Amino acid sequence: MKFDLNLVTASLAEMPDRVDQARSAGYDGLFVAETRQDPFSALAIAGSRVNDIDLGSSIALAFTRSPMTTAVASWELHRPHGRFILGLGSQVRKHIERRYSCAYDPPLPRLREYVAAVRHIWGAFQGVHPLDFQGEFFTLDFLPDVVNPGPIEHPEPEIYLASLGPLMYRTAGAVADGAFVHPLHTVDYLRDVAEPAIAEGLAVQAKDRERFALSVTVFTVIGTGESADRMRESVRSQLAFYSSTPTYRRVLEHAGWDGVGERLQGLVRAGRHAEIAAEVPDDMLDEFCIVAETWPEAADVARARYAGVADRISFYNPPAPGQALR
């Protein structure tokens, strides 16, 4: 099982310190999410400073970029050391259509074709075939030598897809090399819902489960006393926010917390946002979190909890620079 430093926000200025943190704390990978920043820019800085850990996007938005743009950025990040992982996600309709003014529907067929287009482009860069992708959503057939990045000495990057429901897990199994698990989950949900769907997808590409990575992000509450209490309430607010969204209802239903989800959604609809955190009971928080006094203890708990399920672990609210993981 690998442990990754997963940054939800990461300014360009802090990346050198974050690279040093990842190496000194014993992480296997450094991932950057696309929230306020472009993950590829941050990872370019990381890639100039490190060559012995994995680097990846967790995730980059697919539909806001041409497959060619994504393919080029990933290719250059992968070129030096062959350790880049391209994490992609569809996001939700409101962000794609109203924040980025890009096409969203239909998300699953579009994402499947997007992955196929990126892989086809990489094959063209590598000289396996000319660029000639003719899809329902994307057409790519023009690649003059002057703009062709050319081959690299490594196998092409792996692709992970952000997943939540069974259809997305099945899609990841069918077209990708791994899946990112949202922090709002339980181990039982992964065993009962994610794994069977992944198996169905893997059967499409005749791929063994051992060659597919499940990368799990986990909520954590670390420490004792007032610092732990503050962290606990912060995580409670995060849980309340996600649980109030209908998208995550299936996870709550599976864990027996659907009633909490309904109450939270009602409060949000009524504009009573300040009240939602109080609706998350302690036992629900404990079910969705790892609670420990130290980060090394948290790593041990995560390793035991996700044994046989997760291939990579990252913490949603990771240690600050200077705090060792193990």
Automatic annotation (TrEMBL):
SUPFAM superfamilies associated with the record: Bacterial luciferase-like
Superkingdom assignment: Bacteria
A Pfam family recorded for this sequence: Bac_luciferase
Domain Luciferase-like: start-end pairs: 11-306
GO molecular function: oxidoreductase activity, acting on paired donors, with incorporation or reduction of molecular oxygen
InterPro entries xrefs: F420-G6PD/mer, Lucif-like_OxRdtase_MSMEG_2256, Luciferase-like_dom, Luciferase-like_sf
Classification via PANTHER family: CONSERVED HYPOTHETICAL ALANINE AND PROLINE-RICH PROTEIN, PTHR43244
NCBIfam families: F420_MSMEG_2256 (TIGR03617)
Name this polypeptide is given: Probable F420-dependent oxidoreductase, MSMEG_2256 family
Organism: Blastococcus tunisiensis
